[in-house]
Structures are given as C-alpha cells and as structure tokens.
Amino acid sequence: MRSLMYLGQGRIAAMVKTALVIGGLTLAMGVAQPASADSAAVVVKMSDKPPKFMPEKATIKVGQTVQWVNNAQTLHSVDADPSMVQNAKDVVLPPGAKPFDSGFMTPGNTYEHKFTVPGTYKYTCVPHEKDGMMGEVVVTK
C-alpha cells in the first residue's frame, strides 16, 4: 500500500470504490473496457506471484490492439502515463504518442489500447511498480 501513497488516499479510495462498484463493466471515462481477445493482436496477462505482465514484451503493427487481462487475485493497472507512476523513467512513449492509463483493474477486468504511433512503449503497474512489474510494446509500421 505504501507504493500507492503518492497518489493520495482520497484518490486511491475513489478509484478502488469505482472499480469495485462497476466491476467488469466499463469504468468511468472509458478507462477500462470489456473486450474480446479475438479483437486483440496480443493478450497480456497479469500475475500475482511474482507480479508481472506475461508476456513482458510484445511486438505489434500500427493500428493493432493489445488487451491486458487481470487474471490475478489483486488489483493491477496498465500505466503508460509518467504523471501516474512513482518514477517517470519507468514510462517511455514514442514522440507523438499519448499517455494511457487503465485505472485500477479488479480481478477479472480487462483493458484494451489501440496503438496508432510506431515506436517503443514502456509501461508499468502502479500497485506493483516497486516490485518491477514492467512491460513493453514495440509498434512497427
């Protein structure tokens, strides 16, 4: 929980409450979306022990989508937004790419992101950033 303190307790409580109330439905502002693995170029699963993205690195083409699935028993997130993480160096975005953030994902939740800018994206899981839960997506033309 200490790794989440930087977000502020009020903000964490609100995000967790929203995730728990809405569950598998779409979160406010389109953050997490129900999705079909059939539409994703790559499906990335999230594990608890150790906390990690599987696979940790994926390569796709411009216009393709990655789907993250929280099949673990704890909260996870997908954060490629330097303003949302403890160490901004844990996030890398290619020039012209917009940051993205899944919000907190409860077990069983999914999140999709369509990649429209080629380059290397490095992202993290905010609750497990201190544990080294990092992932990478390489988007080719």
Brief characterization of the structure:
This protein has 141 residues and is mainly beta. Helices cover 10% and strands 30% of the residues.
Description of the molecule:
A hairpin with a 4-residue loop joins strand 1 (42-47) and strand 2. The N and C termini lie far apart (40 Å). The chain has a four-stranded mixed β-sheet, with no helix packed on it. Strands 3-9-8 form a three-stranded mixed β-sheet, with no helix packed on it. Strands 5-6 form a two-stranded antiparallel ribbon. It is built from one helix and nine strands. It has a single domain, classed as Cupredoxins -  blue copper proteins (Immunoglobulin-like). The protein is globular, with a radius of gyration of 14 Å. The protein has one helix at 9-22, and strands spanning 42-47, 52-54, 57-61, 65-70, 79-80, 100-101, 110-114, 119-124, 134-140. The protein is mostly beta strands and 141 residues long.
Q: What's the CATH H-level homologous superfamily?
A: Cupredoxins -  blue copper proteins
Q: Structural class, from secondary structure content? A: mainly beta
Q: Could you say how many structural domains there are in total?
A: 1
Biggest sheet, in brief? 4 strands, mixed
Overall mean confidence score, pLDDT: 81
The helix content is: under 10%
Low-confidence stretches: 1-37
What is the CATH domain class?
Mainly Beta
What CATH calls the topology is Immunoglobulin-like
Q: Can you list the strand order of the major beta sheet?
A: 2-1-4-7
For the terminal residues, how far apart are their CA atoms?
Answer: 40 Å
Rough shape? globular
Number of continuous helical runs = 1
SSE series? HEEEEEEEEE
What portion of the residues fall into strands of 2 or more residues? 25-35%
